[in-house]
Design goal:
The structure is a single chain. 40% of the residues lie in helices and 18% in strands. Strand 15 (481-486) and strand 16 (491-500) form a beta hairpin. The protein has helices spanning 2-7, 24-50, 98-122, 128-187, 253-260, 290-351, 358-383, and strands at residues 54-60, 63-67, 73-78, 85-86, 91-95, 214-218, 274-277, 386-388, 393-398, 405-406, 411-412, 451-452, 455-459, 463-469, 481-486, 491-500, 505-507, 510-519, 531-536. It is rod-shaped. The chain has 7 helices and 19 strands. It is α+β, with helices and mostly antiparallel strands and 538 residues long. A 6-stranded antiparallel β-barrel has the order 1-14-18-16-15-19.
Length: 538
């Protein structure tokens, strides 16, 4: 037991002796080591917690233009190809514009005509041509006056001759009637019935302006036929009396037609001579036989005919006078009108161009404005038949070929076998980072539906668009420096946050915001659409 105690080993049933307490130096060293471990752990946690997150994005052009024609038509030319660098204002494609060009030409011609009209109305001038035209009008008007004066003179002379001829007819028939009436009065004891002689009244017989010369009619009363006893009385066997007959012998056949027909024409005639002769008839004695009664009846009938002929001649004279007066009046009116027209054209030629009324000028200006508006519209239509590069850039894609039908929405994609170029099945529905926006010279949304844009042009410096979740958008601000790693070409490009799009992009279970990053001198091998990793910096 002593040995065990000496060696310090406890045996069975013995207790181990307690260790000696630490010295102060050892305690201090232990505390220092423990504090260093705690500090290292804190620093590590702080470094891990403050590390900026990394986000995925894609390279995008500064501007993307989706170019189409504004109206349906036929593609006439396509002057660019994908990858070609273009300048602003360069013609990229044209549409058939035959109809638009013709419409513009017609509208421009109308504008030129209306402009000339307005200028002439606002500044009326009498040029050499207008003076010559005015002189021609004066000459024509003078000739019209001379012609009207000549026509009036001919009408007056013709009317006078026609009236004179018809008045001579009336005078001749009046004399025949007077001769037969006197014969009846001297040969017949019975008074002449008033109804048997339809003599016109004196007022109804107009006096002619000039009477033609007539041969004086001769009227003889024959002796009574001899009786059976030899005295001068009539007998039953007496010859029947002959009635007076009027014979008009004009000097010419034309004059004969004038005396017995309707109103004469206006052709002047020469002198007319009417010879009226009467066949002698037996004159009954104071004691007339029955044959004398028949003679008187026959003579009475002749007187009635003479009166009717005189009435007809008088009516014809009245008609001739009326017709002549009407013709002379018409010719006189024509002369007055010609003289008035001559005075007007002479006054215009002397005074020059008259001022145009203000209302007429205003109407002409209104028509000019309408024509100018039509020209502007046709110019826009014609300009829309050409696609011009809106900015410097690179052609990303083209569709269709010359002769295809184009639409405002672009080129129609027709269904076809999967993978066939140009078919709707060939358009793979991949991830779209951002929706097409309306850009100057482009059509918003032209990539949707069954149409593809005719020409796509990328312009401006290369940028990166990344989508940050809502939990991290508060850590980003404009002007913040970032580091962009382009995995496809294994290069790192510095950049700066240029714009934060506040319009959220919502997906099931999360909300993202688009952040646009401007790159600093990206190499040429960086192309639009490449995937990048964006590291935010403090």
């Amino acid at each position: 037991m002593n040995a065990a105690l000496a060696s310090g080993e406890a045996g069975v049933g013995e207790m181990r002796p307690a260790k000696a307490p630490l010295r102060p130096r050892q305690l201090i060293i232990a505390l220092v080591l423990a504090g260093g471990g705690v500090a290292a752990a804190g620093l590590t946690y702080r470094a891990l917690a403050s590390q900026a997150p990394t986000f995925v994005g894609h390279t995008t052009p500064g501007h993307a233009y989706y170019l189409n024609f504004t109206a349906d038509g036929t593609l006439q030319s396509l002057d660019v190809r994908p990858g070609q660098v273009v300048k602003a204002g360069q013609v990229l494609a044209t549409e058939d514009s035959t109809v638009a060009a013709a419409n513009l030409k017609a509208a421009q011609a109308e504008v030129d005509a209306d402009s000339a009209t307005v200028s002439a109305q606002e500044n009326p001038q009498t040029g050499v041509a207008q003076q010559n035209q005015a002189q021609v009008l004066v000459t024509k008007a003078t000739g019209a006056v001379d012609s009207a004066q000549s026509a009036l003179s001919v009408a007056q002379q013709s009317s006078k001759n026609s009236i004179d001829v018809q008045a001579a007819v009336v005078t001749g028939r009046q004399k025949v009637l007077d001769a037969d009436t006197a014969r009846y009065t001297s040969a017949c004891s019975a008074p002449l019935p008033a109804a048997a002689v339809p003599l016109p009244t004196a007022a109804a017989v107009p006096l002619p302006t000039a009477a033609a010369a007539f041969d004086q009619p001769t009227a003889s009363l024959p002796a009574p036929p001899p009786g059976p006893t030899g005295d001068s009385g009539p007998t039953t066997a007496a010859d029947p009396p002959t009635t007076s007959a009027e014979t008009i012998s004009p000097t010419t056949s034309a004059q004969a037609a004038t005396t017995d027909t309707a109103a004469p024409s206006h052709t002047p005639t020469t002198s007319h001579t009417l010879a009226v002769t009467h066949q002698p008839s037996a004159s009954p004695s104071s004691s007339a036989a029955p044959s004398d009664a028949a003679f008187c009846q026959s003579l009475q009938a002749q007187i009635t005919k003479d009166g009717t002929a005189l009435t007809d001649a008088q009516a014809q004279l009245t008609a001739t006078q009326s017709s002549a007066s009407s013709q002379v009046g018409r010719d006189a009116d024509q002369l007055a009108q010609s003289q008035a027209l001559l005075q007007v054209v002479q006054g215009q030629a002397a005074a020059g161009a008259p001022p145009v009324p203000a209302a007429t000028i205003a109407q002409a200006k209104s028509e000019l404005a309408a024509a100018q508006a039509k020209v502007a519209q046709d110019q826009r239509v014609l300009a829309a038949a050409t696609i011009i590069a809106p900015a410097d850039g690179t052609v990303a894609d083209t569709a269709a070929a010359v002769g295809d039908q184009v639409h405002p929405d672009g080129i129609r994609l027709y269904p076809g076998p999967a993978g066939q170029p140009g078919s709707a099945a060939d358009q793979q529905g991949g991830f779209q980072l951002f929706a097409p926006q309306a850009t100057p010279g482009g059509n918003a949304g032209s990539q949707t539906g069954t149409y593809a844009p005719l020409i796509t042009v990328y312009s401006g410096p290369m940028t990166v668009t990344a989508q940050l979740p809502e939990a991290n958008i508060g850590d980003v601000h404009t002007g913040q420096a970032v580091s962009v790693t382009v995995t496809a070409v294994n290069t790192v490009v510095p950049g700066t946050v240029g714009k934060i799009i506040l319009d959220p992009a919502r997906v099931p279970g999360a909300v993202y915001y688009d952040v646009e990053i401007d790159l600093t001198d990206p190499p040429g091998k960086v192309m639009p659409g490449m995937t990048v990793n964006v590291d935010l910096k403090d």
